[in-house]
Every structure is written in structure tokens, then in C-alpha cells.
What does this fold into?
Amino acid sequence: DTGVSQDPRHKITKRGQNVTFRCDPISEHNRLYWYRQTLGQGPEFLTYFQNEAQLEKSRLLSDRFSAERPKGSFSTLEIQRTEQGDSAMYLCASSYGTSMADTQYFGPGTRLTVL
Amino acid sequence: AQTVTQSQPEMSVQEAETVTLSCTYDTSESNYYLFWYKQPPSRQMILVIRQEAYKQQNATENRFSVNFQKAAKSFSLKISDSQLGDTAMYFCAGGYNQGGKLIFGQGTELSVKP
It folds into this structure.
């Protein structure tokens, strides 16, 4: 099985620019999650999808953040008008099933640096 | 609200010895799951072990076991016969069975020394 993949692995952008990240989950995994991890901290939940439906969004996900999973397969996370505080590792995970008992498999992450 | 707390930012252990990483959680829900994840340097996070909060029996996976104290809301990870490859950040996490999100602790950086 191919694991969760994320693209790009690194992104450097200037403050005010828009960025978009892509996550490809493990094939047939119906759930897809986005987390953000800053240096030295644990991941913080942003949002998750079950198939194409976005079931929960964190209050951390301001209006500048939007996530989609249009066909229930890959997902994109867009950040508009980036700020220096957006610099972090953005992690994607996927799972098969509908409960917490189902293992979340994480991707390698996209490291965002906002200058 | 649910919280997960790890109070040991760093720990070290000699190869082949045993080490215990601490974690406490706070939730009023009974249908709760607890996890330990490992994040090796520059590599992706992988699940080490999982515990259903409604089960009394402590989970075990090879050299990894948990000490789950429900009344104290404590969920510690014991690593036996530590190996150099165990060097990593370890995160404790929890989540409700009917939900999707994991709440992570701050992490413990474990170094296994030869």
C-alpha cells in the first residue's frame, strides 16, 4: 500500500501570498484529516472529511483557511493572505472507517515558511 | 473540553533499559480512545499503541505497553529493552469514539543512548 502523500514537501512564500497544499490519502480511506504542527509542539487539529463531507472544523481554521475534498479522494488546503504566524508543518492523515478505533496514518507533511 | 498533557519535554535512556513516558488527559466522556504516536527525526508520525478507555486491560504491543489508570486519568507508555531506533518524539493523544479529531500532548523527546 502506498502511504499518505503530500505535495509540496516544502513551501516558502512571502507574507500576503496565497498557498495551496495537496494531500493524497491511502487508497479507499474514507476519512481525511488536516493538522498543523509548530516547532516543538504536538499537532493541532484543523479539520476532517468523511468522503467529500467536511464534518468538523477547528476554531483555529480562520476565514483565510479553506479545505476541500471534492470527490472524496485527494484534499487541498488553501491559505489566503498568508501571515508569518502561519509558518508551520501541515500534516495530513487518513483512516478507513468511522470511529476513533480506526488508525490515522500520517503523511510526511508540508513545511510552510512565510517570510 | 478535552486536554492531553505531557509534562516531560525530554528524557533519555540507555540502550536495553526500560523507560516510562507520562501522560495525563482530561475528559468527562467514557467512550474515549488514547494513543501514543512516535515521530522520528524528519520522518512521519506512526502509531505505537492504542487503548480504549472503557477497557480495564492495559494494551501491549511487543516492547511497548501502557499503564492506564482511569481514575487518575493517567496513560503512561513503557518501552522495554530500548533500542537506538526508539529515539524520537513521542506524542500522547486522545479522541472521542464518535469524533474524528485527535488532541495531542506537547510531546516528549526521547533519546536512546548506546
About this structure: The interface with chain A takes residues 4, 6, 32-33, 37, 43-47, 50, 52, 91, 93, 95-107 of chain B (CB under 8 Å).
